[in-house]
Design a protein that fits this description.
This protein is mainly beta and 277 residues long. The chain is built from no helices and 15 strands. Strands 1, 2, 3, 4, 5, 6, 7, 8, 11, 12, 13, 14 and 15 form a 13-stranded antiparallel β-sheet that branches. It has a two-stranded antiparallel ribbon with strand order 9-10. The two termini are 14 Å apart.
Length: 277
């Protein structure tokens, strides 16, 4: 929030992140993967990144960075199915997928707030390059485009928030740890985390954010998403959709969020901090 709408010569962000999902879900690869094929395993990612940023103008920000990520998969379920995790080829499930990447992005951002915007737009383009190194076993390139819009609709102050995010990962043998993912807290809230995996992913979210009482607010919206394996497959059919609603409690410097997303497969409940966009 301190950098939002500011001109600054240089900033440096260091991220160290470790997670361990004891019971992570895997449904298969592709947009047509079946919910009934769900299996569980343990996923343990470690991420280190260094990002340098510059605010060229009040609305234009550039970033350069480097990231190392190691994701270990283990505790697979026994299965005779050839597409199950334990039987995937080594290049698709190397047990520990490691990569070092370099990334760049440019962002045009007219939002009046980073934490709780009520008007403005965001246009962000990014690229990531992960070459081969002696200490890594994953190589890929990735391009991404994100669009966001915020506008006031009517009194009492109701905000229409829109987001579209498209990503394309290029590489012959990208393991499941590094495929693009849809589902869960940040994309399709009516579907489980990592519900759909593939090389190309698009997600669209629309939310109406409205006041209720005092610091409490409400949200009602819709999430859309789809994955593809090849550029030639990209189209407007086969998209997955779920409605969502939630509550917000607004502090001066952060937001407490409770969301519920519903689909034909399951209902997701999420308690977290900050809007998803």
């Amino acid at each position: 929030e301190l950098r939002q709408g500011k001109i600054y010569p240089f900033s440096l962000d260091i991220l160290v992140d470790y997670d361990k999902w004891i019971k992570n879900s895997y449904f298969g690869i592709g947009n047509d993967s079946k919910f009934e094929d769900r299996e569980y395993y343990t996923r343990e990612p470690i991420e280190l990144s260094l990002t340098a940023s510059r605010g060229f103008t009040q609305t234009l920000v550039g970033q350069l960075g480097v990231e190392f990520k190691s994701t270990r998969n283990f505790n697979f379920e026994e299965s005779d199915e050839p597409k199950s995790l334990i039987n995937l080829p080594h290049e698709l499930n190397p047990k520990n997928a490691k990569y070092l990447s370099f990334f760049v992005n440019m962002r045009y951002d007219t939002r009046n707030s980073f934490i709780n915007p009520s008007h403005g737009i965001v246009v962000q383009a990014e690229g990531e390059l992960s070459p081969n190194f002696s200490f890594t076993n994953v190589s890929f390139n990735r391009l991404g485009l994100m669009l966001q819009s915020y506008s006031k609709l009517f009194y009492p102050t109701t905000i229409l928030a829109l987001r579209f995010n498209f990503q394309n990962a290029y590489g012959d043998k990208i393991p499941i740890q590094n495929l693009l993912s849809l589902g869960g807290n940040q994309t399709l809230r009516g579907y489980p985390q990592d519900r759909f995996l593939d090389k190309i992913a698009a997600a669209a979210n629309a939310e109406l954010r409205f006041p209720i009482y005092w610091r409490f607010g409400g949200v009602a919206g819709i999430d859309l998403g789809r994955v593809w394996n090849k550029n030639s497959e990209i189209g407007f059919t086969g998209w997955h959709m779920n409605p969502n609603f939630g509550l917000r409690f607004y502090f001066e410097t952060f937001i407490v969020r409770l969301d519920v997303g519903m689909s034909s497969e399951t209902t997701g409940f999420y308690f977290n901090f900050g809007h998803i966009f």
